[in-house]
Amino acid sequence: MADVHAEGSPGDDRHRASILVVDDDPRITTLLMAALSKDSYAVTAVNDSREVVRMDLSSVDLILCDVMMPHLDGFALLTSIRERVSCPIIFLTAKTDEDSAVLAYGLGADDYIRKPFGIAELRAKVRARLSQGSRRGRLLLRFGSLDMDLQARQIRVDGRNANLTDAEYRICALLAEHPGRAYAPMQIWEACLAAEDDPAADDTDSDATAAVRVHLSNARRKLKALGVDPIRTIWSVGYQWAA
Questions:
Q1: Helix 205-225 / helix 98-107 crossing angle, nearest 10 deg
Q2: Which one, of 216, 218, 215, 227, lies nearest residue 159 by Cα?
Q3: Taking each helix axis from N to C terminus, what angle separates 166-176 and 119-134, rounded to the nearest 10 degrees?
Q4: Strands across the sheet with 62-66, in order?
Q5: Running DSSP on this structure, what letter comes out for residue 183?
Q6: Residue 72 contacts by C-beta under 8 Å, 6 or more apart in sequence?
Q7: Alpha-carbon separation of residue 31 from 37, 118, 239 (angstroms)
Q8: Which of 145, 169, 226, 236 has the fewest CB atoms inside 10 Å of its own CB, making it the most exposed?
Q9: How far apart (Å, rounded) are the C-alpha atoms in residues 207 and 185?
Q10: Helix, strand or coil for residue 162?
Q11: In a 10 Å sphere around its CB, with 0-12 CB exposed, 13-18 middle and 19+ buried, how is residue 45 labelled?
């Protein structure tokens, strides 16, 4: 396991962001560490995915994870740690089939970058995810028994945390900040999930729509388990926050 810590420029708070890179190929992790450290992130690289299960992940702001790894593949690793982390998780993979992408989003991944990818594309997506995670609106939204804390980035129902992933939270925050407004899946994707400053992004409409639907389904399941169901499906239009 290796660490790179680089200080940001004055007034630039990106040096506070901690990124964990998980890939069994040391050449890949070395390349990613060099690229991401240029953006003043603190980067930790792990080549044995089994180590991640034992790590303290509370201070990690974003995880880049390969899918096809020995011993514990990326999907199995995400399953084992997802309840302990709420930061964005981006998969890096040579798999190109849509089913794998849907499975990744269903497990709680926030993005899915297909290999081979350009370093500029990856850096742009990382910047976008971390930027989305740092935005602030009103500090607290309240809908009956449901509280949305925009500073802590949490949704609680009668004091119980819904334990949403970063992507699920961002979608709910978008809808909740504009209650009653219906958003089409592609609008949600572009506002919450797409790497908006990445001109090289090649997400298809079908991939994007599938990702939004999976994240929304997971969020609704977690909220329903706490006794609330604020998200409505508006047929042929999209989704709205109706609480």
A1: 30
A2: 227
A3: 50
A4: 2-4, 42-46, 18-22, 62-66, 89-93, 111-114
A5: B
A6: 49, 50, 53, 80
A7: 10, 11, 40
A8: 236
A9: 11
A10: coil
A11: buried
pTM of the model: 0.57
Q: What pLDDT tens digit does each residue of the chain (243 aa) get?
A: 544 333 333 334 434 689 999 999 999 999 999 999 888 899 999 999 999 999 988 888 899 999 999 999 999 999 898 778 878 889 988 776 667 777 777 777 888 888 888 898 889 889 888 876 554 444 678 888 998 887 778 899 998 999 999 999 999 999 998 888 899 999 999 888 875 443 334 456 778 889 999 999 999 999 999 999 999 999 888 999 986
Q: Which residue has the tokens 């990445």?
A: 198
Distance CA 100, CA 93 (A): 10
Asked if residue 185 has a cis previous peptide bond (ω within 30° of 0), the answer is no
Helix (H, G, I), strand (E, B) or coil at 28: helix
Q: Which two tokens stand for residue 141?
A: 């939204």
